[in-house]
Amino acid sequence: MSTDQYSFADPVTRYDRIAPPEETQPEPGLDRDLSPLADHGEESYRGSGRLAGRRALITGGDSGIGAAAAIAFAREGADVAISYLPEEEPDAQRIVALIEQAGRKALALPGDLKDPGYCRSIVEQTVGEFGGLDILVNNGGKQVTQEAVTDISDEQFDHTLKTNVYAMFWITKAAVPHMPPGSTIINTTSIEAYQPSPTLIDYATTKAAINNFTKGLAQQLAPRGIRVNAVAPGPIWTPLQPSHGQPMEKLTSFGQSKPLGRAGQPAELAPAYVFLASAESSYVAGATLSVTGGEPTP
């Protein structure tokens, strides 16, 4: 792998083509137990002050894409709060340490996004600790594969919708009154919003909803100087995948069918979130930035 995100490299070989074993983790999964380990930019992401003095809240910030964004935001000069499930504490503490090593304030917020009270409280705690909030990343998500629609329990459907869609609504509603002009909201959608897998019907449904929420809210908040955008990842190697997020038989070739021939690493998503959070994207609102390994999206 190259030394940092700016280095010239062949994208096909920038990261290894992974072939994970057919094994599962208990949901929600831990980054520390991934085989192979994911890259979040721990050794490679180089900041340049693009988010100096900013205050960010990232849901699902303990692992995967959220962790990569948290590391990048801190190295760009932002204080960062991360929300995560209590079972993910080992991963969260590692990310907190990396934020603090970058010389920024970190705030750990364990809890369950299915709880509206918790969703509102993490906004208030972030504002109280950092003195404000001007970057919100709605990234926390639930993804569980099922072969048939008849296998999706009412409980699973409810939990997926609440984690992925309701929480985004609850948190955004609580955050907007605190956000000054120049603030940004970034929602994590997915290529599943455009190309739904037959085994991820409930998950794909939420990702399409996130796209629509993003585009509608962007128009509503633009006159207030708050920009709303989304990032649509393709197959990225995170704990979602081996913790029942993919059929086990597909793990060994995860991401290899994409034009770049490999799965993406969380570190490859971080620059997209930094761009949308920074003033460099000041004329970008209501957009979905696809990071899919070459897979086309509308």
Question: What's the alpha carbon Rg, rounded to whole Å?
Answer: 18 Å
Shape label: globular
Within CATH, the superfamily carries the name: NAD(P)-binding Rossmann-like Domain
Annotated CATH architecture: 3-Layer(aba) Sandwich
- The chain-level mean pLDDT equals 95
Amino-to-carboxy terminus distance = 30 Å
Beta-strand segment tally: 7
Structural class: alpha/beta
**Biggest pleated-sheet summary:** 7 strands, parallel
Describe the model.
There is one protein chain. The chain has one domain (45-291): NAD(P)-binding Rossmann-like Domain (Rossmann fold, 3-Layer(aba) Sandwich), CATH 3.40.50.720. 34% of the residues lie in helices and 12% in strands. It contains eight helices and seven strands, in the order βαβαβαβαβαβαααβ. Strands 3-2-1-4-5-6-7 form a seven-stranded parallel sheet, with helices on both faces.
Outline the fold blueprint.
Blueprint: E1 55-59, H1 64-75, E2 79-84, H2 89-101, E3 106-110, H3 116-130, E4 135-138, H4 154-175, E5 184-188, H5 201-221, E6 227-233, H6 241-245, H7 248-251, H8 270-277, E7 288-291
Parallel strand pairs: 1-2, 1-4, 2-3, 4-5, 5-6, 6-7
Quick synopsis:
The chain has 298 residues and is an alpha/beta fold. It contains eight helices and seven strands, in the order E-H-E-H-E-H-E-H-E-H-E-H-H-H-E. Strands 3-2-1-4-5-6-7 form a seven-stranded parallel beta sheet, with helices on both faces.
